[in-house]
């Protein structure tokens, strides 16, 4: 009998994700509050679930015609169809031309992993990937493992206290040609139409490959169609791109991990070739995706009455988020909290930057047991009628104890707005350049 393990040299892995939550769970203080959940919460401090979902689950449970066979590696065809239509629009030119399709994945991360694997093997362009901070911890490691070099960019301006999506111009202008730009939550991008036209021209000139990441469609405006206007604009402009579409959040099915990697190609032939490769990757990654969540979503989106009910639930969530923003700002005003708090109501979506310093964040965590990330970005659905007074009073106390509150000011001069992230930097890979871009280049060259 061997007495020593063959794995004695395996070190204990550092915990990269979840330390803040671990600290919160170990905290014995009765007033503790956690404002960093990644899911939509309710006033009862449980994850949100639209009423139409349990109704649909019950219907499926009593359907005698339901088959429990393995799904194909690319997933449920009806699910891919209805969710892709939800993303690009039922009458999208890409659908009319039959050049858009998808692969059912294990959540949004599965879609990122699948798409990144394809790009590693077939994309004949730069190995530089641009990511936003909220994606770096998880998605950055996926791209890094596959040999890409990661560069981080952000739209939040901590000096002017605004989300400045105009920074996209800086990102694109500084990016190497044929690099990969991951756009997180495009529904929150606000630019005049003329600027989108200008930006699209720059992207075409530099042959930037877009990889959209849609984590919770409908949570920005309450309307899934409105949230994807920018993505649909790029479809009309003839761009080919990938999109990680996560459906778990939008339907409250967090434990089902439901995703879709949507592919918009230049032609039907290119789409078929790309999907054939993605099917092979999906087969050896997970063989067959789970069916229950996709069946629930397919049933809801295929039934006009259930679809309307689902959209009504989304609007209710967004209206509550907007109301919470107003309440937080007003309570801070009534407390006389130093600083400007207009930026709270000027942001959109489930998450919001408080605009406070790292020292003020540390004070909230250590002194008041209000757990928020170092970035100061909180999940507004974690605030409810039971904890809002304690949270705003704690913020007020942190501002008074540490120093001045957030004030718009001029940013310091910088040499570059898109510094390379040295921690995630991977060795640069030498790739062959071509006049054509991305997947189309490779597929045409294979003829």
Number of helices: 18
How would you sum up the global shape? globular
Roughly how much helix do the residues carry, as a percent range? 40-55%
Q: What is the residue-averaged pLDDT?
A: 89
The profile of the biggest β sheet is: 7 strands, mixed
Q: Class by helix and strand content?
A: alpha/beta
- Low-pLDDT stretches are 415-447
| End-to-end separation | 58 Å
Strand content: 5-15%
C-alpha-based Rg, rounded: 23 Å
Structural features, described:
It is built from 18 helices and 13 strands. By secondary structure, it is of the alpha/beta class. Strands 2-10-9-8-7-3-4 form a seven-stranded mixed sheet, sandwiched between helices. Strand 7 (180-184), helix 8 (193-206) and strand 8 (209-214) form a beta-alpha-beta unit. It is globular. The N and C termini lie far apart (58 Å).
Report a brief summary of the structure.
With 447 residues, the chain is of the alpha/beta class. Helix content is 45%, strand content 12%.
Spell out the blueprint of helices and strands.
Layout: H1 19-26, E1 33-34, H2 52-61, H3 77-88, H4 93-96, E2 100-106, H5 107-122, E3 128-131, H6 133-145, E4 149-152, E5 156-157, E6 162-163, H7 168-174, E7 180-184, H8 193-206, E8 209-214, H9 224-227, H10 229-236, E9 241-246, H11 248-251, E10 258-264, H12 268-285, H13 292-302, H14 304-334, H15 342-346, E11 351-353, H16 358-368, E12 370-371, E13 377-379, H17 388-402, H18 438-445
Parallel strand pairs: 1-12, 3-4, 3-7, 7-8, 8-9
Antiparallel strand pairs: 2-10, 5-6, 9-10, 11-13
């Amino acid at each position: 009998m061997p007495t020593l393990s063959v794995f004695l040299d395996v070190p204990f892995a550092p915990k990269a994700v979840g330390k803040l939550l671990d600290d919160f769970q170990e905290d014995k203080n009765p007033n503790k509050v956690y404002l960093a959940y990644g899911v939509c919460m309710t006033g009862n401090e449980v994850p949100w679930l639209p009423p139409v979902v349990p109704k649909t689950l019950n219907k499926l449970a009593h359907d005698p015609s339901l088959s429990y066979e393995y799904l194909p590696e690319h997933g449920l065809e009806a699910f891919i169809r209805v969710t892709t239509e939800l993303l690009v629009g039922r009458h999208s030119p890409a659908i009319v031309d039959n050049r858009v399709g998808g692969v059912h994945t294990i959540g949004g991360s599965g879609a990122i992993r699948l798409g990144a694997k394809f790009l590693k093997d077939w994309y004949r362009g730069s190995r530089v990937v641009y990511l936003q901070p909220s994606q770096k911890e998880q998605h950055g490691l996926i791209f890094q493992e596959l040999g890409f070099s990661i560069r981080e960019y952000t739209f939040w301006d901590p000096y002017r206290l605004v989300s400045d999506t105009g920074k996209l111009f800086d990102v694109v202008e500084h990016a190497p040609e044929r690099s990969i730009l991951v756009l997180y939550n495009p529904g929150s991008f606000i630019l005049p139409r003329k600027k989108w036209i200008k930006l699209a021209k720059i992207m075409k000139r530099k042959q930037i490959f877009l990889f959209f990441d849609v984590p919770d469609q409908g949570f920005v405006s309450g309307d899934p169609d409105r949230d994807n206007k920018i993505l649909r604009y790029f479809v009309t402009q003839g761009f080919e791109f990938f999109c990680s579409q996560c459906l778990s959040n939008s339907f409250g099915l967090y434990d089902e991990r439901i995703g879709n990697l949507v592919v918009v190609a230049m032609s039907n032939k290119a789409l078929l070739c790309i999907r054939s490769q993605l099917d092979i990757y999906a087969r050896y990654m997970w063989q067959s995706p789970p069916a229950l969540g996709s069946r629930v979503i397919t049933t809801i989106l295929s039934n006009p009455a259930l679809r309307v009910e689902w959209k009504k639930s989304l609007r209710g969530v967004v209206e509550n988020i907007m109301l919470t923003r107003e309440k937080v700002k007003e309570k801070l005003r009534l407390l006389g909290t130093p600083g400007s708090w207009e930026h709270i109501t000027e942001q959109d979506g489930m998450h919001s930057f408080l605009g406070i310093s790292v020292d003020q964040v540390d004070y909230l965590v250590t002194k008041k047991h209000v757990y928020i990330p170092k970035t100061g970005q909180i999940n507004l659905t974690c605030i409810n009628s039971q904890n809002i007074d304690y949270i705003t009073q704690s913020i007020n106390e942190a501002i008074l104890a540490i120093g001045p509150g957030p004030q718009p000011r001029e940013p310091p001069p910088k040499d570059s707005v898109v510094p390379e992230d040295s921690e995630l930097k991977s060795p640069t890979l030498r790739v062959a350049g071509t006049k054509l871009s991305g997947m189309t280049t490779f597929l045409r060259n294979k003829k």
